[in-house]
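REQUEST FORM: STRUCTURE PREDICTION
Request ID: SP-0412
Submitted by: Lab K.M.
Chain count: 1
Length (residues): 71
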Amino acid sequence: ASQEISTQGGLRATVYFKVTGFGKISGCKIITPSKDPNFDRILLVLFNQLPLLPPPDNIPHTFQLTFEQGE
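STATUS: Completed
RESULT:
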C-alpha cells in the first residue's frame, strides 16, 4: 500500500516498513531521503515507537508512506 501525506513543499521523505502478523513494525527504512538527515532520523524514531494492533488477517503487510514538511 502507498499513501502520500503532503503539506505544501519543504522536506519530503519516503519510509518503507513491514507490519508483522502480531502488529509489530519491522524493517523500517528511509527509501527516499529528504535533504535533512534530522528529519529522516525523526521519522525512523517515530515509526519504531508506533503502537499498532495486529492486522485483521494476522498476515504481515508492507507499506510505503511519503511525508512532507511544509516550509
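NOTES: The radius of gyration is 13 Å.
Reviewed by: T.R.
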